[in-house]
Amino acid sequence: MANISIPGIATGESKQRKKGLPIIVTIGLVWIAAMIVIAVTADWIRPFNITAFDLKNRLALPGNPKHFLGTDELGRDVLSRLIDSIRISLLIAFGATMISAFVGTLLGFLAAYFRGIVEHIVLMLADFQAAMPFLIMSLAVLAFFGSSLPLLICLMGFYGWERYTRIARGLAISASKQGYASAVTQLGASPARVYLNHILPNIASTLIVSMTLTFPEVILMESSLSFLGLGVQPPMTSLGNMVGYGREYLTRAPWIMLTPSVVIMLTTLSISIVGDWLRDKLDPTLS
Amino acid sequence: MSTDILIEASDLTKTYFSRRGLLGRPTAVHAVDGVSLAVAPGTTLGIVGESGSGKSTTGRLLLGLEAPSAGHVRFEGEPMPALETAEWRKYRARMQLVFQDPLAALDRRLAIGAQIGEPLEIHNIGTQAERRERVLTLLQAVGLRRDQETSYPHELSGGQRQRVVIARAIASDPQLLVCDEPVSALDVSIQAQVVNLLRDLQETRGITMVFISHDLKVVRNISDRVAVMYLGRIVEEASSDEIFSTPLHPYTRALVSSVPVPGTALKDRIVLQGEPPNPAARPAGCAFHPRCAVAIARCRAETPALLAVGSGRKAACHLVGGDQPAGVTNNIGSVETLVEAASTQTSASP
Amino acid sequence: MFRFLLFKIFRALVTIMLVVTFAFIVLRMSGDPAVIILGPDAPPQAIEAFRHAWGLDQPLWDQYLRYFGAIARGDLGVSMRDGQSAVLLVMERIPATLELTVPALILKLVLGISIGVYAALHRETLLDRVVMAGAVVGFTMPSFVLGLVLVLIFAVELDWLPSGGQDTWTHAILPIITMSVGGIGILARFSRSAMIEILGQPYIRTASAKGMPWRKVVWRHALPNAAIPIVTIAGFMVGSLIAGAVVVESLFSWPGVGRLLVVSVANRDLAVVQCILLMVAACMVLSNFTVDILYGYLDPRLRTANVKG
After folding, report:
1. What are the residue boundaries of the structural domains of chain B, listed by start?
2. Phi then psi for B124, rounded to 5 degrees?
3. Which of A16, A151, B311, C246 is most buried, by CB atoms within 10 Å?
4. How does pLDDT run across B6-19, given as a tens digit for each residue?
5. Contact, B167 vs B175, CB < 8 A?
6. Mutation test of the interface with chain A: which of C13, C129, C140, choosing the one with the most A Cβ atoms within 10 A?
7. CA–CA distance from C306 to each of A170, A173, B16 (Å)?
8. Which of B84, B91, B99 sits opposite A183 (nearest CB)?
9. Other CB atoms closer than 10 Å to residue A193's CB: what's the count?
10. pLDDT band for position A106 (50/70/90)?
11. CB pair distance less than 8 Å for C3 and B21
C-alpha cells in the first residue's frame, strides 16, 4: 500500500531531542574506552605471554579455568593473544590516522595558501589516491618493501590523506574569503600564524570528525592485510592475523577465529557510531 | 612639503579581467582608474560613491592590500612595500583597516581580549603584562567595559563588535586608519555612536583617517575633505563644507540633494535616471553622461579630467572648471542655471 | 561537451602515468633489482652483468623512459616462479575473477539499489529499520570474517555448499555472496538517503499535489534524479570490487587474479605484481571515465556547463 502521506517531510528521524547521550553512543564510548585501556595495559593484564606454549592444554575450549577464551593448536592462550592483538591493531590504526591527518592537512593548507600550480599538483595527487583501491596499492608496496611494523604504519598512514586535504583546503579557502583570516593577515600576521593560530583551530572539529570516520576503515584495512599474511608478521599478532591463523582451525576450534572477529566488528561499529554522533553534533554539513 | 602629506596616491589604477564563459574574451574592468589623492596628517578624507565606484578598492590600494595595476602609493614619502613581504607586514603596525562586517573580521573562537591584543603580539609591542593592560585600556577607549575582555564575538551586539574591531585596529597605534563602510551594517542609532567614537579617537590620538562610505550623512559628520567617486574615478574633491553647500559636479549635486536636513522636507531633489553604474560596461566619454540631466555632446565624446576649480577644489566635468566663463564657476545655484550655461556654451561654439 | 570529454581523457591519462611512475619509484626504491632477482649471494660479476643487461647502470631518467616504453609495448617481464610471461599469467586468471566479480557487481547494484529505494519509500517501517541495521553490519563486518562465518555455517555445519576451489558452479555461491554483502549494504544505505533527499525536494511535492499517481512520481521524477548520485557511488564501488576480489579469492582458494596477487606478493614476484597493478589502474581509469561520461549524460546541467580544468 503506497504511502499516502506527503513524502519528504522529515518525520521522526530525529525524534529524540533528549538531553545527554543516546544510549547506543554511550555503549560505543564504553567499548572504545575498554579497548584503549586494554591496549595500554596489555603487558600487565595479559595472563600469558603470547608465544608461551601450554602443550597440555591444546585446543582447549573457552571457559577453561586457566584459559578463559581457550587455546590454539600450540597451546597458546587465546585471551592473551587477543589482548596483544588489540594493542597492535589499535596502535597501527592510531599511528596511521595521525600521520594521514597531519600530512593531509598540511598538503591542504599548502594548496590553499599557494594556489596555482601547487594546488593543481596536490589535487591531482588526491584524485589519484582516491581513484586507486588502497588494498592493491599497499600490496604492491608490501611486495617491494616487505612488512615491518614501522613500514606498515607509514603505509597505512597513506590511507585517506586525501580526505583531510580536501577538507583543509576547502575550509582554508573559505576562511580566507570570509574575513577573519584576511583580517588577521591585514594585521600583519605571518601566514604561519594565520594558519596555526586561527584557521586550524576553527577547522579542528571537522578534521576530528573525519578522523573518527576514517579510523575504523584503517582497522579493517590492516586486518585484511594481516589476514592475507602480508600485514603484521609473526611473532607479533594483530586482530586480522589471528583471524587468518584461526582459519586453519575453523572446524575444530572456531573460537580462535571468532573472538578477534567479534572484537574487530564491535570496535569498528563503536567508532562509527560515536563518529556519526560527533558529526551530527559538531558539523552537520559533513557527510 | 612631504611632512604635510601622510599618504598620497598617484594615478592609481586597478584592472580586473573577467571572462564571460570559457570561450568569451576577457574584458577589462577598471575598478579604479587613475585616482590621485593626498591626505594630510591628522585629517579625515571621506570617499563617497555607489557600489561599483571603486571606493573600497581604492581604500585597499592605499593600504597596500592589493597591488595597483598602475600608479603608486607613498606613505610618509616612502613607497609602499610589496604585498605580503616582511617589510609590508611591519608597515601594518602603522596603518590599519576597519571592516564593514565586524563578525566576519573576528575569529569566533577567540575572546575579544585576545584578538585586540593580537597586533601587540604580532609586532612585539610591550611585555606580557603591558599588553594586557593596554588591551584593557583600549576596551575602555572604545566604550566597552574592562570585564568584557573574556567575551566572545557572538556574545556582543553588532555595534560592540565594531568597537572591538576598532580597538584592535588602533592597538598598534597606527598613523593611518582606513575605514571601509564601518557603520553600514549597523543600526542607525548605533552608527552615530561609532562615528563619534572614531572622531574622538582621531582628536585624542591624531590618527589620520580615510572614511569610505556610500552614505553621505555619515561622511559629512566625520570628514574634513571629501572625494566623490564614480566608476573608478574621482569626479569631485573639496572640503566637506564646500561639497555639501555648493556641490559642482552633477553627480555630487544629485547625491547631496538627497541628504535629508532635519526639520525640512526634501526639496529640489535630483533623481538620477538610467542604469546604476556597471564597471564592466563603462560608457564612453564621461562615465556619468547617460544619467546626467545636463549632459552635452562633448560629454559623450571626451572624458573630463579632474581639474582645479578654485582653491582646494577639484571637479571633473566639462560644464565646471577651468574653461568656463568666470561667472558660472562660483555661482552654480540651481539646475536651471547649469542648463542655461550649457545651452549658452553650445550655441557659442562654432 | 567535447571539451568535457577531452578533459576527462586527459585526466585518465594522467592517472595512468602516475600509476606507472608510482610502480617505477617503488620498484627502484625497494632495492637493487639485480640483487633481488639474482639473490644476495650472487657473484659481483653476475650482478654487474645483470645490471648492464637490464640497463640498470643508466641514469634514472633513461631507465624511466625505457620502463615506460616497455610497458607501452606490453612487455612486463617474466614471472620469477616459472619464467612465464607475466602478462600471460595474469590474463589466464582473469576469467576466473570475472566469474566472481561480475555476478557480485550485478547483485550489488540490483539488490542494493532496489532495497535502498524501497526502504526510502517505506520509511520507518520494519523493513527500513532492518535495512539500516543490516547496512551497518555490512559495513563493519570485514569480508574475510563474513566469508569465514558463511563457510562455518554452510560448509561446515550444514554441509550444503563447498568451501573452496573452483570445481562446480556451487563453489561460486559463497564467494559471490561474500563479495556482494558489503556492497549491498553500502549501496542500500546510500540509495536510501539519496532517494530521501530527492523525495524531499519541492518539485516532488508539486508533482504529487498535481494529482500524479505516486508510482509515476517515483518513476519519472524521483528515480532519474536519484540516479545521478547513485551512479557516482556505484562507480566508486568498482575499486572496492577489485580489492574485495583479492580477499575473497584468497579465502576461498579461488584461482583468480586476486589470489595470484597475494601469492606473488608473498613470493616477491615483482613482475607479476607490477602487471596486476597496471591492469587494475587501467580498470579503475576506465570505470571512472565511464562514470564521468554517464554522469555528464544523466545530469543535463553538466552537459552545457563550462568545465574548468
Report:
1. 109-167, 246-348
2. 55, 50
3. C246
4. 888 888 888 887 76
5. no
6. C140
7. 21, 22, 21
8. B99
9. 16
10. very high
11. no
